[in-house]
């Protein structure tokens, strides 16, 4: 039987565990949206995330609130959820979330890890979350934390 090449892998924003230095212990995660950005804080030791107040702002106002969160929590790094279609294909919000991640890197000089966040909002809504954006940020961060050694 002839060798059949494997189909190309779907794009993935899931970080590679070895790329996260062991001294990085605390993280802030963001579920980026055009009007609202969910926020969660968490740490490597507990492997859990806690929802924070959702940022309801756009543009520079959003970044002012992100800066306030970073000053308050002083994370070692940031985590951004990047959405994809169910088949792994990127879409417009994929590019927007990746741009947001790049802006965070540039503005705050922190390492930013991108995590594939397919279905995080659906999972947050299914769990009955009052703030689906913050709950989604928790899901994103906990997924990231589980990937660490």
Automatic annotation (TrEMBL):
This is Putative pre-16S rRNA nuclease. The gene is ruvX. One of its GO terms (biological process) is rRNA 5'-end processing. Signal peptide: none annotated. Residues 25-124 form the YqgF/RNase H-like domain. One of its GO terms (molecular function) is hydrolase activity, acting on ester bonds. SUPFAM superfamilies: Ribonuclease H-like. It is found in: Cytoplasm.
